[in-house]
Amino acid sequence: TQLLEQSPQFLSIQEGENLTVYCNSSSVFSSLQWYRQEPGEGPVLLVTVVTGGEVKKLKRLTFQFGDARKDSSLHITAAQPGDTGLYLCAGVGRDDKIIFGKGTRLHILP
Amino acid sequence: KAGVTQTPRYLIKTRGQQVTLSCSPISGHRSVSWYQQTPGQGLQFLFEYFSETQRNKGNFPGRFSGRQFSNSRSEMNVSTLELGDSALYLCASSLGQMANNYGYTFGSGTRLTVV
């Protein structure tokens, strides 16, 4: 069974600080997606990374796909209260099935 | 353009009853996937429909079923409801099969509470 482990599960930091959340697996994925979910809403796609070693930037968010395509990280620079939410990674694995991690719940304190 | 629309937003049902949830995907999206989200298990894949055919299925009992119509709208049905079926049910549409490199567009979900 392919699994995606996200860490940390919870993170509460002050506005302006930097942070990194991780998404790890022992399995190889053909691509990996990151989503953010706010309370009462469905997840919203932030980025898809496809190539091992790929780095994508979305304003203050930097996403990296591991060289072996087994892991990924999301780095947020100068976090803002609007970054608060549940961050989910999802890997496209065998048989094109998409596996979601359980998420990192991020809270930015003003 | 309109997003993914799920109805109803909230539902309270009694154990043993059945329920039908509806999802209208983004216009032009032919793939619709359903997920169950709970605090303990996260997002669990239920099934995916593409052009009216079930293409993939998760590890849920037969009480969970779905279908897709010719206009790509989808419904999922849960029969003989159990307390453990209480969850947020999310529908996601994508341009390609199983999202792959396109990613999903999710609806806001249906919050089902079984009492």
Summarize this, please?
The complex is a heterodimer of chains A (110) and B (115). Chain A has strands at 5-7, 10-14, 19-24, 31-37, 44-49, 55-58, 61-65, 71-76, 85-92, 98-100, 104-109.
Molecular structure report:
The complex is a heterodimer of chains A (110) and B (115). With 110 residues, chain A is mostly beta strands. Chain A is built from no helices and eleven strands. Chain A has strands spanning 5-7, 10-14, 19-24, 31-37, 44-49, 55-58, 61-65, 71-76, 85-92, 98-100, 104-109. In chain A, the strands form two sheets. In chain A, strands 2, 4, 5, 9, 10 and 11 form a six-stranded mixed β-sheet that branches. In chain A, strands 1-3-8-7-6 form a five-stranded antiparallel β-sheet, with no helix packed on it. In chain A, a hairpin with a 6-residue loop joins β4 and β5 (44-49). Chain A starts with a strand and ends with a strand. Chain B is mainly beta and 115 residues long. In chain B, strands 2, 4, 5, 6, 9, 10 and 11 form a seven-stranded mixed β-sheet that branches. In chain B, strands 1-3-8-7 form a four-stranded antiparallel β-sheet, with no helix packed on it. Chain B is globular. At the A-B interface, β4, β5, β9 and β10 of A face β5 and β10 of B.
Q: What topology emerges from the helices and strands here?
A:
The complex is a heterodimer of chains A (110) and B (115).
Chain A: E1 5-7, E2 10-14, E3 19-24, E4 31-37, E5 44-49, E6 55-58, E7 61-65, E8 71-76, E9 85-92, E10 98-100, E11 104-109
Parallel strand pairs in A: 2-11
Antiparallel strand pairs in A: 1-3, 3-8, 4-5, 4-9, 6-7, 7-8, 9-10, 9-11
Chain B: E1 5-7, E2 10-13, E3 19-24, E4 31-38, E5 42-50, E6 53-57, E7 64-68, E8 74-78, E9 87-94, E10 105-106, E11 110-114
Parallel strand pairs in B: 2-11
Antiparallel strand pairs in B: 1-3, 3-8, 4-5, 4-9, 5-6, 7-8, 9-10, 9-11
